[in-house]
Structures are given as structure tokens and as C-alpha cells.
């Protein structure tokens, strides 16, 4: 390396003009002492520079290669070098602060393998020299303390401060506003009750009325039917084993008549009659009324979906329904929606009337066209004033439905045509079944078009009992009805 650079310096020196005249294309150096280098030979100057560095820095910089940047830019001369000027120049270099001199890239290069420098000086100078990436070890630039160290666990001991009772006593105690010297007592925390809740609690004195969420008491909800005022679901009691109830959920509407119908329905079920569905509990939660009732096995309509009901079972069902209607009429209520869907059957052959959402009082003038179209009496369709005898007409249609499996005029879908057929044609009778003569006579009596001559529920019940005792009509028992239902609906629950 040294020989190659000296040759380059010699070639650079030979390019100068002879006779001490410098070439104009070669630039001058900016150092103040560069003009004195013109008379010094290149090799001797390098040797003198190295010697001066060894003497000045004690050999620390002896292994570094001298920068030839300034030497390349200096002028060369062909004249003989003066030994005295060279000596003076060396002294000038030794006395100069080398930190002011611009460092060239030559100082960053590694020493040549052909260099004759000692290995000891090389080891000292290459301690902090930059190395290109390759087979060298990556330096730890972050240091040994770059990661957080866990703090030592020091067990702290706590001690209670001595209580100072005088510290917490206020110098200015609170005083009530006004002339009163005593602190007034807060009113008791009582939940406000709305007017509807007051009416329900007054009407249902013997039935528990709750204001808590019924979902905390019941679970396993499954819809089993729909009523006039809401859907009916089956639920299980959380805290009582094997207790199942039917819950009817009614959404409270601001309409006054609608709320009155709910209270009327609750009053009828709260009577506790054997042939009326029994009310167990009422829950008022948010904007809904949850009505818990006894759960029955099925309705008469569910049996009709499988087959028709024979005459003896139909007579028993009609007698039990007449008992419930007779009780309702004696209490001043009209059902207005008697049909097979609203007659429920129990596991032991019980018969109960349900869905009193359209019930009304007998002491008021009733002219509304309410009910199910195919079971409506003629006076209801005409919107004339009617009484409890409209339930007898609906019960006669229900008796035909139980034996024929369908009500009269079931094929008519248009309501106008249906009403025209009921009003214009004669009283309907059996179509698809073959009942006895006495059963036909009973249905004709119930379907009397004149309301005044139509019988009451108690009269019909007495007439049927007479025919049963005379063996003109056959009537099954509750056990017989239960066995018949088990045979028709073996998987019913």
C-alpha cells in the first residue's frame, strides 16, 4: 500500500512543469503551511510526519496511516530539497494541534496485511475502529443495563396512627335552613303505586299480587296458545318442584276500556269455581301484566285435530261447561267467546272454561259485535241489545263442532257471506255425524233464533240431567274422558 501510494505521488510529481513552474490545472491546498511543502520530497515528508506523530503521542498514532489528501493537492517541485527547511517544517507540524486538521477517509481504513507495523500498536489502535457487518460480533449498543430489572421485595410494616378525636370535630356544625332548630326527618321510602295497580289489588283481595320480575320466579317458557289479550306460555316454578303453570302475558295499553277488560278477566278467574280456570298469581312488571293460572292438559280443539268426539263424551263436556256458564251468569258476567278452543281438559278429566278477555257485565247495555264470527248469535251480528243467552247459541255451535269436528259454515271465508248465511238460513244442525234424536233436539233448543225463547244455562243443565236419568242420553264420567284423551293423545303433556 505504501509503495503504491508513493508511486502515485511520484507520478503526480512528474506531472508538474520543469523549472519550478507549477501546472495551473492542479489546485492549491488551503493550509497556511502548504507552500513550504513544495521543496520537500514526498517520501521524506511522510517519514518525517510519522516520526513526529510517534514523538508527540507516544506511539498511539504510529499505526495509523497518514492522510495523503493534502499531499495530493499540494504542489510538487523538481528542485532540490533543503534539509534545514525540512527540519523547520517538521518542527512546525509537531507544534501544531492535529485536532484542527480535517480527517480524511484514509484514517478509517484497516491496516494492510503487507504493513511492517508491529502487532502491539495495531491492537491498541483498533479497539474502537468501525467494522463492516459480516463475521464480526454485533456490538451491544444498548448496554448491559438496557432492560428493566425487578425491584427487590421489601416487606413493609404498617402501624396504625393514633386516633385524634378532636381533629374530626367541626368547629361550625351544620344547621338546618330556617327558624327550625331540629333536623327534619326524611319521609319513608315507599314506592309509588299507580291507579291501575290499586284497582287490581282491590279487586283481587285473596290473590297474591307481585311487583317483582316474574322471570326470577319462573323459567322454561314455552308458548302453548294465544288469548284475546295476549299469548299463553307454559312455565315452571323455580323454587317449587314439579309445579307447572300457564302464564298469560298482557301488555298494558293506555286505553281505559282495555284495562277494565283485564281487571274483569282477573275477577272471573279469582272466583275459584271448579269449572273456571283458576288464577294463581298476578305480577305487574314494567308495562306488562303476567297472569299465572292452572296448567291444563289440552283443549277440546286439540282432540278434534285427531278425531271427532263421541256423543257420550260430548254430553259430559257440555254439562261441565254449562255449570261454569251458569255460575258466571249468576255473578252477572257474559263470556261472549264460547268455542272448543276455550274449553280446557285436565289430566283427570276436568273441564274448565278459559279466556275471559271478551267477558262483559249483564247489567250494562251490550250491543258490540264481539266474539268469533262462526259462533256469533244472530242478535250479536245485527248489533242489537243482547244478554247472557248469546252464550247458549255459542254452546250449541260448539256441540256441533265437537261431533262434526268443524263448526257450521266452516267453508265460508268471507265474513259478509258468513253473516248473511247465519241470518238468512235456518238454524244449523249436524252435518258429518249421526247423533241421537235427543241430541238433535238439544242442539235445536240451544240454537233458537229468538233470544226470548232461548233457554238459560241452568234450564239446559236440568233438562240434560233428566234425559240422562231417563237413559235417553248417554253421559261419560271424568275417568272415562281421561282414558279417552289418553288414547287419542298419548304423547300429550
UniProtKB/TrEMBL annotation:
GO terms for cellular component: cytoplasm. The lineage of its organism: Eukaryota, Fungi, Fungi incertae sedis, Mucoromycota, Mucoromycotina. It comes from the Eukaryota. SUPFAM superfamilies: Protein kinase-like (PK-like). It is an enzyme of class 2 (transferase). Residues 1-25, 68-89 are annotated as: Disordered. It comes from Thamnidium elegans. This is non-specific serine/threonine protein kinase. InterPro entries: Kinase-like_dom_sf, Prot_kinase_dom, Protein_kinase_ATP_BS, Ser/Thr_kinase_AS, STE20/SPS1-PAK. GO terms for molecular function: ATP binding; protein serine/threonine kinase activity. Belongs to the protein kinase superfamily. STE Ser/Thr protein kinase family. STE20 subfamily. Residues 218-468 form the Protein kinase domain. Keywords: ATP-binding, Kinase, Nucleotide-binding, Serine/threonine-protein kinase, Transferase. ATP binds at residue 248. Residues 76-89 have a biased composition (Polar residues). Its EC number is 2.7.11.1. It catalyses: L-seryl-[protein] + ATP = O-phospho-L-seryl-[protein] + ADP + H(+); L-threonyl-[protein] + ATP = O-phospho-L-threonyl-[protein] + ADP + H(+).
Amino acid at each position: 500500500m505504501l509503495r503504491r501510494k508513493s508511486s502515485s505521488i511520484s507520478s503526480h510529481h512528474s506531472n508538474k512543469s520543469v523549472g519550478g513552474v507549477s501546472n495551473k490545472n492542479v489546485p492549491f491546498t488551503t493550509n497556511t503551511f502548504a507552500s513550504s511543502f513544495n521543496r520537500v520530497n514526498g517520501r521524506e515528508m511522510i517519514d518525517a510526519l510519522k516520526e513526529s506523530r510517534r514523538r508527540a503521542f507516544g506511539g498511539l498514532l504510529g499505526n495509523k496511516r497518514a492522510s495523503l489528501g493534502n499531499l495530493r493537492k499540494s504542489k510538487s517541485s523538481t528542485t532540490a530539497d533543503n534539509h534545514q527547511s525540512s527540519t523547520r517544517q517538521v518542527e512546525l507540524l509537531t507544534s501544531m494541534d492535529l485536532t484542527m486538521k480535517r480527517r480524511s477517509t484514509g484514517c478509517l481504513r484497516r491496516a494492510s496485511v503487507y504493513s511492517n507495523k508491529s502487532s502491539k500498536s495495531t491492537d491498541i489502535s483498533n479497539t474502537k475502529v468501525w467494522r463492516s457487518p459480516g463475521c464480526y460480533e454485533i456490538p451491544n449498543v444498548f448496554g448491559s443495563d438496557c432492560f428493566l430489572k425487578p425491584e427487590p421485595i421489601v416487606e413493609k410494616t404498617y402501624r396504625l396512627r393514633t386516633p385524634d378525636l378532636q381533629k374530626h370535630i367541626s368547629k361550625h356544625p351544620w344547621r338546618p335552613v330556617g327558624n327550625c332548630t331540629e333536623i327534619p326527618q326524611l319521609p319513608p321510602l315507599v314506592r309509588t303505586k299507580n291507579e291501575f295497580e290499586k284497582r287490581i289489588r282491590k279487586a283481587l283481595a285473596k290473590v297474591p299480587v307481585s311487583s317483582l320480575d316474574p322471570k326470577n320466579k319462573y323459567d322454561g317458557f314455552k308458548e302453548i296458545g294465544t288469548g284475546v289479550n295476549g299469548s299463553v306460555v307454559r312455565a315452571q316454578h323455580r323454587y317449587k318442584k314439579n309445579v307447572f303453570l300457564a302464564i298469560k302475558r298482557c301488555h298494558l295499553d293506555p286505553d281505559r276500556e282495555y284495562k277494565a277488560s283485564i281487571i274483569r278477566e282477573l275477577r272471573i278467574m279469582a272466583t275459584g269455581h271448579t269449572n273456571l280456570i283458576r288464577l294463581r298469581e298476578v305480577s305487574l312488571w314494567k308495562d306488562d301484566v303476567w297472569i299465572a293460572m292452572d296448567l291444563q292438559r289440552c283443549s277440546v280443539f286439540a282432540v278434534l285435530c285427531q278425531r271427532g268426539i263421541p256423543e257420550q263424551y260430548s254430553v259430559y263436556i257440555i254439562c261441565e261447561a254449562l255449570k261454569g256458564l251458569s255460575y258466571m251468569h249468576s255473578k252477572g258476567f257474559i263470556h261472549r267467546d264460547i268455542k272448543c278452543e276455550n274449553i280446557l281438559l285436565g289430566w283427570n278429566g276436568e273441564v274448565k272454561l278459559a279466556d275471559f278477555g271478551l267477558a262483559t257485565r249483564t247489567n250494562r247495555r251490550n250491543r258490540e259485535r264481539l266474539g268469533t264470527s262462526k259462533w256469533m248469535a244472530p242478535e250479536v251480528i245485527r248489533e242489537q241489545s243482547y244478554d247472557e243467552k248469546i252464550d247458549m247459541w255459542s254452546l250449541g255451535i260448539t256441540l256441533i263442532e265437537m261431533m262434526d269436528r268443524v263448526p257450521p259454515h266452516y267453508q265460508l271465508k268471507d265474513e259478509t257471506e258468513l253473516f248473511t248465511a247465519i241470518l238468512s238460513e235456518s238454524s244449523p244442525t249436524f252435518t258429518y255425524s249421526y247423533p241421537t234424536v235427543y241430541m238433535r233436539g238439544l242442539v235445536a233448543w240451544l240454537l233458537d233464533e229468538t233470544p226470548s225463547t232461548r233457554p238459560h244455562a241452568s234450564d239446559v243443565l236440568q233438562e240434560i240431567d233428566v234425559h240422562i236419568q231417563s237413559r235417553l242420553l248417554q253421559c261419560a264420567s271424568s275417568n272415562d274422558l281421561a282414558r279417552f284423551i289418553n288414547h287419542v293423545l298419548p304423547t300429550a303433556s
